[in-house]
Amino acid sequence: MGKLTDLNSIPQAGRAAASFSRTIGWFAGTYAVSSVGFLACQALAGHILGLSQYAVFASITTASVVLGQLGTFGLHRSGLRMMARSGDPDSDEVSTQYAGVRVVALVALPVLALVWGAVALPVFSASAPSMLIALAVALCVAALTHCLAFTTVAAGFLRGGGRIEVASLLDGRSGGAVMVVVQAAALVVLSGDHSQLRLEHCLIAMGLGAIPAGLFAWWSLLSARRPRERRRHSMADIFAVIREGSTFAGIQAAGMLNAQVETGIAAVLLSRPDASGFAAAQRIALLVVLPLNAAQTVFAPTLSRLAARGRRGDLARLLAAINTVTAALCLIASVLLAIFSNPVLGHIFGSGFSASAALLVVLLLGPLGLAALGMCSVALSMAGHESVVWRVQGSTVVVRTVSGVSCAALWGEQGLAWSASVVTVLSCVAIAMICKQRLEVRRLFAVQPKQLLAIGKM
To answer: What is 130-157 written as a DSSP string?
Structure first.
């Protein structure tokens, strides 16, 4: 096996490389914790809120994730690419990236989070018994938005700089292992009283549970920087960094919308029980792509370095090997979920959600398309073709919204599910074709078992 510095670390004197296998083992463990923790949070919310309110909870938390990703201005990806390619973590370019992070973390994200909390405040004030409780919920939603976004930025910089173990605690489903574990505990503590404040309790628990992870991300990012002479950066330089990353922000937000926009459509056009059942089925269907998400997190820095050095052949071989492994794992997960769709929904969210088993089977077709696409979109972004990915993703959001609204109005939740899956598959085909053209990739999958060894050799 190769060494950690060969895969995910920039060369730095005095840093000993941990083994590749230990790094992968640590990441797999933390990613599993974050995935199980995310599922536990959704399951607790489903049992507490039931079919009547779960769709509202899912819509608000999804909006927080999407808005937070926009507020990062893509620094999590542009920073990762810069850190992975740079041989000097103290260079002016990297230092300017950190200055951009400070502006985003201390100005852009707080403003965006507070605005979102203020917009959502009338929703809470209509149901909460007092304005004080409604204000507390709005502030917790703002905290959730800020912390979700900042942990993503911190994880990108830490991973690009080789601090894989720390970054792994902040990566994963909805904020990483640290965040979801605290959120699950907070849901258990604050939501024990199944009174009329069930929705308020759940949102407060999610917001308060996100704060420790946000503080940990800030401390980790500060501790990763060695003491040095403080540089002065002009606002023009900082805004240039933010502009560079804005395309990545669009890609990330569009990706989130493409995965979740149907939840909002269901909340608006369908009855609350139907919308809640749809949201639960969609949450479970998205678990299928966890192997792909994990691979994207681990191998994005490697793809960036291979692209920067012009090693297109190595990039193509690594891409095919990763795509093959992740597609096989996602296919197995999809088959199992389709077979056991009824008991999975019933045991995780509650017996009332079992009626959405047929929706889950249809919604699994979309994640299967993503699994077949593999790492193509990440490879294009790391190779400098992020603008074309953004155009495809943005166009897909528009098509998905129009198609989803039309199909939901005509055929209800089944029409919405089929729309989601078909649009996802078509967008994946478009990205795959562009990847083969731009990166000169002949095959998206490994055709011989020995080609899978490329994963351990890069």
So the answer is: SHHHHHHHHHHHHHHHHHHHHHHHHHHH
Q: What is the DSSP string of 264-302?
A: HHHHHHS-HHHHHHHHHHHHHHHGGGHHHHHHHHHHHHH
Long-range contacts of the stretch 204-209 (C-beta < 8 A, 24+): 204/136, 204/137, 204/140, 206/41, 206/61, 206/140, 206/144, 207/137, 207/139, 207/140, 207/141, 207/142, 207/143, 207/144, 208/140, 208/143, 209/179, 209/180, 209/182, 209/183, 209/184, 209/185
Q: Which two tokens stand for residue 328?
A: 């096989």
Which is it for the CA torsion 266, 268, 274, 276, positive or negative? positive
Residue at 226: amino acid letter? R
Parts of the chain with a pLDDT under 50:
1-18, 227, 229-230, 449, 451-452, 454, 456
Q: At what angle do helices 20-71 and 341-349 cross, to 10 degrees?
A: 70
Model pLDDT for residues 348-359, shown as the tens digit of each residue: 888 889 888 999
Express each pLDDT in 52-89 by its tens digit: 888 889 889 888 888 887 777 766 666 666 665 655 55
3-state secondary structure of 233: coil
